[in-house]
Amino acid sequence: MRLLRRLHVVLVPILLLVAVIAGTALYFWQLSEHKKLEQQKWVTKLTNSINAANFERSGIEALGYEVSGSVQFINYLQSSGDSSERLFLENHIRYVLRQERVVELGRIAVYVIDPSFVLTASSESSDPFGPLELPNDLYQTVFDAYVHVSTGGAFYKQGTAYRSITGELRYLSISAHHSKMLPDDKQAMNRADRSLLVVDGPLTQINVLLTEIHRYPTLSLDFNQPSSSINPVEPITIKVLEQEYIDGSLIDISGLGLSMSLTVLDDHYAPIESRLATKLTLYMLVVLVVMLFIIHLVVRTNIIKPINALLNDIHRGGLELRYFKRAKGDDEVSTLKNAI
Fold first, then answer.
1. Using CA atoms, how far apart are residues 263 and 251, in angstroms rounded to an integer?
2. CA 222 to each of CA 46, 123, 259: distance values in angstroms, whole numbers, following the listed order
3. Which of 280, 299, 282, 287 is CA-nearest to residue 10?
4. What are the C-alpha distances in Å from 264 to residues 245, 254, 255?
5. How far apart are CA 181 and CA 60, in angstroms?
6. Each residue of 288-335: pLDDT tens digit?
7. Pairing between strand 248-255 and 258-265?
8. End-to-end distance of the chain based on CA atoms, in angstroms?
């Protein structure tokens, strides 16, 4: 068997084994890094959406302050439910909602409820003489606030994030107002004869993120209903947990009164695994071919070529000593020449 063939028989399996071991180790390391980057990408999106929700919450509450501080609203409170003042108030609310700065917040709804829990004004009313109804999504929360106010409990305002029947995440702001006292007056906070101003608006950025996540069958985002009102100074906390009962991980993120859980199944990384395996396989094959080429070149240059030259000398000299050229080197072929 020729020397190069023997070399290939020995080297190719060894290099293949080394390439498989190195490629496997590199594959799992790269996969781990890609998973971390993918998780960090979604954590960043969740964090940004919560921060954006804080600004949207502030905009919804600012709209409530604007309506409650208007002349139309104050006149309505002091008019004892006069129908003309109610129409003036509804027209003013619709005017405010048509402003560009308010339109950018999304579809906002404003409701006014009197001390007897009667809905007397609504921005959603299409018929000025028709009955007014409070949406089912809001009814329980608003009724709980009304019960608290009507029983003399200390109440000024509260804000709550909730998920509507349609799956949209929204923010509900409720504030109590007396006809003759400021809302934050200590004497007014326990008065039972106060009207409720309800402002309801979407948390747009979180809803955009929900829509994006719904495109991935391997991702799911769950919204955990907060147990208390939103705290605008609450820090954002992030926890990444490995699940025991599903093949995937769970990312818990909470802050500003919002709490969400993103489930990432292991199948979500299947495209990454496929691309990574293909790329590393190609890389390993290229490296293997280059190494074999270099070894082949070195063997031919430093071993095969000198041996062929020696065989040619032997063939020309007819095995006679005078035809051998002495060599000064210390390699195997030079040693062989000088020994004859």
1. 6
2. 12, 30, 9
3. 299
4. 13, 17, 20
5. 23
6. 888 888 887 887 787 777 777 766 766 665 555 455 555 666 665 566
7. antiparallel
8. 26
